[in-house]
Amino acid sequence: MKKLFFLILMGSSLTMYAQEPEDGLRLSWFAPNGTARSNALGGAMGSLGGDLSSNHINPAGLGFYKSSELLLTPKFLVQTNNFNYRGTSSSNTNSKSNFGSVGMVFADGQKRNNWTSTAFSITYNQVANFNNHSSFGGKNNFSSLSEKYLEELVGDQADSNAALSNYIFGSSLAFRTYLVDTTVDARGNVNGYQSLVPISSGVNQAYDAHTTGSYDELAFGWGGNMDDKLYLGGSLVLPMINYSKRLTYSEVDATTNPDNNFSSFVLDENFSSRGWGLGAKLGIIYKPEPFLRVGFTLHTPQVISFRDQISASLSTNTEKYAGTLSASSGELNNGYAGIREYTISTPTKAIFSTSYFFASPSKPSQPLGFIAADLEVVNYAGTRFYSNNYDKATSDYYSLMNSVIKDAYKNNINFKLGSEIKLSSNWMIRGGAAYYGSPYKDETIKASRMVLSGGIGYRTNRNFIDFTIVSSSTKDAVFPYRLSDKPNTYASLTANQVLFNIGYGIRF
């Protein structure tokens, strides 16, 4: 709690838009997307190989290729969000189609030196989709967003001049519109600040955010096969993040009292973040027996450089106190959006994998199917922010942010299971499941992701097509704002998502 308090103060003293721990979690806690086949198997591809998703999961799987391949996998997504905020329920639905994955693998099936075969792959994959709409509200007589601005001014011991101009994306807007005003002593001297929001009698809060964008990876991978028994591989990954958020947040006096100096306020924020970086994935697959495979993969931290832009406006109706007043960050920043540049290092991920192939007793060399399992260990608390300049105050701010992340999140385990069964020489059916545990240390926040999937595939010597349906359920928490001097209120989220995925490939 104290670390969060000082983080808020440092963010205000730097006159920047204070970041939240969720900015880092957005890059690590999600169910990754892949090819249609990989998605149908719940993502349990760590020891299987022979699929272009290997470039993003375990590059050693590229070593199974002995012929080249081109793959396209468009997808269509439908998501329904159900929120409960302080006893009030709400829901909304979103849909989006996009180009999921595209890639090529160039295989050399001839034995060279110690390698039975080798393969090089280039793939572009949308790992996570940020297109969403979050809308909830309810009556709150415990806290207010205005208290965040109050904490900044009081904690920083800001004078009136500083309050007017130094906090251009938050507290200065609140001060200029009298959402937060000064207090005076018996002699009429200013001695502090107060919020005009009548919290004890309650306000009706409403949060509405539209987010767009995606987390994409461009990967260059290599895999090698030694005697069809040991497979090694690695990929160089270039992550690309495009994220935008348009937020409207409001509080309205629940008493409708026309004489308490507060009727309502509305905050509008526009935020965009663009990032690109570098990472690596290294893997191994070993076949101790023809029917058994085991694998291990290490995903190194991805170092991603970000450039953010933000603009904000605030309008407050203070009734007879000062009427309705409005202010915007553009007025205080010469018409420009605020810009910040920094670097994030994502968590390390380790994947332990195994798969078992079964066959008819009469034809043991021709597998009828398999069952595969992956166990992921993710260090969510390992997300790190770094300053892109040598300014000590900014560096100290990000150092404290990292401490807050370490206190807020924990390491956790994700489990994936998938199976495929051949119906004939050309047709096969698939099914999968995955569970992603909570990244939060606070056990009162009930967070998890559960994924169920299924699909069919058709194969010929040169062409193949896959159809997949993935249903996932997510439990999470959405914080409309964060305070340092009292427990934070949040909306409980249950999201249900259905993904339709088609994959078409050509071997050559």
Mind describing the biggest β-sheet? 14 strands, antiparallel, barrel
Give the count of structural domains. 1
Strand order of the largest sheet: 1-2-3-7-8-9-10-14-15-17-18-19-20-21
Question: What assembly state would you assign to the polypeptide chains in this entry?
Answer: single chain
Instruction: Compute the separation of the termini in Å.
Output: 59 Å
Fraction of helical residues: 10-25%
Q: What's the count of strands?
A: 21
CATH superfamily: Outer membrane protein transport protein (OMPP1/FadL/TodX)
CATH architecture: Beta Barrel
Order of SSEs, N→C?
Answer: HHHEEEEHHHEEEEEEEEHEEEEHEEEEE
**What value does the Rg take, in angstroms?**
26 Å
CATH class: Mainly Beta
In DSSP terms, counting alpha (H) and pi (I) runs of 4 or more, how many helices? 8
Shape descriptor: elongated
Tell me the strand percentage band: over 45%
* Low-pLDDT residue spans: 4-17
Structural description of this entry:
- The chain starts with a helix and ends with a strand.
- It has one domain (17-143, 195-507): Porin (Beta Barrel).
- The strands form two sheets. It has a 14-stranded antiparallel barrel. It has a two-stranded antiparallel sheet with strand order 5-6.
- It is elongated and about 95 Å long.
- Mean pLDDT is 90; it is low at 4-17.
- The protein is built from eight helices and 21 strands.
- The longest helix is centred in the last third of the chain and has 17 residues, at 392-408.
- Strand 7 and strand 8 (230-253) form a beta hairpin.
- The chain has helices at residues 2-13, 22-25, 36-40, 146-155, 160-165, 171-176, 329-332, 392-408, and strands at 69-85, 88-108, 117-129, 132-140, 180-184, 190-195, 203-226, 230-253, 264-289, 292-299, 303-317, 324-328, 338-345, 349-359, 367-379, 384-387, 411-422, 427-436, 448-459, 463-478, 491-507.
- The protein is mainly beta and 508 residues long.
